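Q: Please design a sequence for this.
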């Protein structure tokens, strides 16, 4: 099958958007440190930049172009977007740096007014509900692996980009209740995150188990692609096994962290890893309130 969806034009604009995002973040991060506000640690800025890098690897790098030849590469792209790039972006505490990195004052005021509007506040509360986040991520994962939709994404440039963006958006929504990078704490008890992570493995296990054990090729289009040392069925089984193993490990790490926190005395729990500090100047308080929509 000719690789029609991964065009140089699409890769250029994706790369440009990611470079711009990284520039705005770093500009805002430097501005925050210069003002000696509640400084966002260097490891957080590194986390955000690595998240941007993994998005580029999944969406615009030469490696991404191989997903029409191997289902395993296609699965790697999805895993990078949903389980690597998304949590790294949120661990970077991006709200304040991105806000402060915008052009002074007009851009900041416009963004603040937009996010403080009542419709955006309602939308934020709706999208931030754990059930919505879980359904968005699970629906994205299962939906795009239905053969009809899978073929649509592989044969259409536009729908392929929609597919990739939906995996990124689904990943960002999924990790929001877990990392919760906003200034306010989560309204849900911490033990519920363990249940949330456990339930998230269910659709992944179903899909990966089906790909590994069904005994037939689910996506016949790969019969027409050049083989890179794997049979079509073997490639499918590797893709399913990769998702099964990787998702289990990632969610187990996150679950272990929350379990350790639950076992600590209440007075000893520290929230710095999950979200940035709470002490801000008046200026930061205003801007953060303007951007905090969930």
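A: Design:
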């Amino acid at each position: 099958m000719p690789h029609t969806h991964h065009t140089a034009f699409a890769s250029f604009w994706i790369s440009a958007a990611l470079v711009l995002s990284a520039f705005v973040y770093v500009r805002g991060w430097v501005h925050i440190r210069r003002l000696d506000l509640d400084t966002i640690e260097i490891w957080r800025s590194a986390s955000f930049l690595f998240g941007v890098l993994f998005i580029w690897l999944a969406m615009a790098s030469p490696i991404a172009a191989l997903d029409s030849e191997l289902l395993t590469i296609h699965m790697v792209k999805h895993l990078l977007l949903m389980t690597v790039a998304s949590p790294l972006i949120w661990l970077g505490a991006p709200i304040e740096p991105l806000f402060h990195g915008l052009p002074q004052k007009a851009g900041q005021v416009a963004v603040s007014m937009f996010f403080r509007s009542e419709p955006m506040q309602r939308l934020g509360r709706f999208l931030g509900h754990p059930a919505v986040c879980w359904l968005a991520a699970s629906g994205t994962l299962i939906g795009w692996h239905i053969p009809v939709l899978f073929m649509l994404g592989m044969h259409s440039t536009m729908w392929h980009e929609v597919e990739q963006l939906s995996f990124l958006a689904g990943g960002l929504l999924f990790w929001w209740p877990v990392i919760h990078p906003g200034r306010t704490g989560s309204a849900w008890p911490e033990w519920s995150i363990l249940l949330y992570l456990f339930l998230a493995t269910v659709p992944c296990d179903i899909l990966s188990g089906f790909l590994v054990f069904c005994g037939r090729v689910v996506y016949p289009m790969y019969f027409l692609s050049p083989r890179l040392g794997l049979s079509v069925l073997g490639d499918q089984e590797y893709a399913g096994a990769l998702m099964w193993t990787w998702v289990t490990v990632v969610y187990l790490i996150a679950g272990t962290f929350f379990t350790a926190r639950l076992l600590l005395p209440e007075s000893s729990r520290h929230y710095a890893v999950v979200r940035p500090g709470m002490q801000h100047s008046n200026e930061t308080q205003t801007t953060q309130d303007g951007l905090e929509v969930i």
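Q: Thanks. Anything notable?
A: The two ends are 43 Å apart (CA to CA). Residues 194 and 258 are 7 Å apart (CA to CA).
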